[in-house]
Design goal:
The protein is α/β, with parallel strands linked by helices. The protein contains six helices and ten strands, in the order βαββαβββαβββααβα.
Length: 247
């Protein structure tokens, strides 16, 4: 595993703080979260919405990204249906991954400014924000040469896949907090064979409160991305969206 600190990231360049609304949404079906992302991103492309960070959990869900291979799903769709697991083919980068209860999913919906318009740098910043979060819990984590995401000696703890259009970001990361890792037996995680997965609770040998992890992430995200993060609830966010659509 490579050191946490590699080449200087775009987060180290001077960028003025930009307002970002952050909402912890609890458990939300994948399709509902995707619809919310799409509505906000369309407004952002028209210049009618602030930056937003959505933090949430999903019910058991498997997503297959743009470069995903069907062979990395190790069971058929009927088997998924019997277990109540949804399957979604989506437009993020990356291969196949699992989302479920006990996993902190983050969807940053940002308009990248001129000094931030570096896709590789954006991905490294996402990784760094999670490395910083894990470090605060005493978990040594970093990057793995040749792969995206966040890794520990026990395996991958956070997966990432994004979509960027007109420099507006969508999708994001999935951090295993209290995740039931047995679901990963259904897939080849991220299409990477021979690499394990782990969770914060497995590494720390105790469960964690999801809303606490989400809360502790906000200032770290803000520091890395030079955003002034304001926590809001779902109703406030929907009100902002509604007013932006009518503007």
């Amino acid at each position: 595993m490579r050191s946490m600190r590699g080449r200087p990231s775009i987060s180290e360049r001077p960028v003025a703080a930009v307002e970002c609304l952050a909402a912890w949404l609890g458990r939300l079906p994948f399709s509902e979260a995707l619809d919310l992302q799409m509505r906000i991103c369309e407004l952002k492309k028209r210049g009618n919405a602030p930056d937003v960070l959505l933090l949430l959990e999903h019910p058991p869900t498997i997503t297959l990204g743009r470069s995903g291979l069907r062979e990395n799903l190790l069971v058929d769709e009927a088997a998924l249906a019997r277990r109540g697991i949804e399957l979604h083919h989506i437009d993020r980068g990356g291969d196949i991954t699992y989302h479920g209860p006990g996993q902190l999913v983050g969807y940053p919906l940002l308009l990248l400014e001129n000094g931030e318009r570096d896709v590789r740098g954006y991905m490294r910043n996402l990784e760094q924000s999670l490395i910083d979060l894990l470090g605060g819990y005493g978990v040594a984590a970093g990057r793995e040469d040749g792969f995206t995401g966040v890794w520990t000696p026990a395996g991958k703890v956070a997966a990432m896949g994004v979509h960027i259009s007109r420099w507006v970001t969508r999708h994001g990361f999935a951090l295993n907090v209290n995740t039931d890792l047995s679901y990963y037996d259904l897939i080849v995680p991220c299409g990477i064979r021979g690499k394990g997965v782990t969770s914060m609770s497995a590494l720390l040998r105790r469960p964690l409160e999801m809303d606490e992890v989400a809360s502790r992430y906000l200032p770290l995200f803000g520091a890395v991305f030079h955003r002034s993060v304001t926590p809001v609830d779902r109703d406030f966010l929907e009100n902002i969206i509604g007013r932006s659509r009518s503007a």
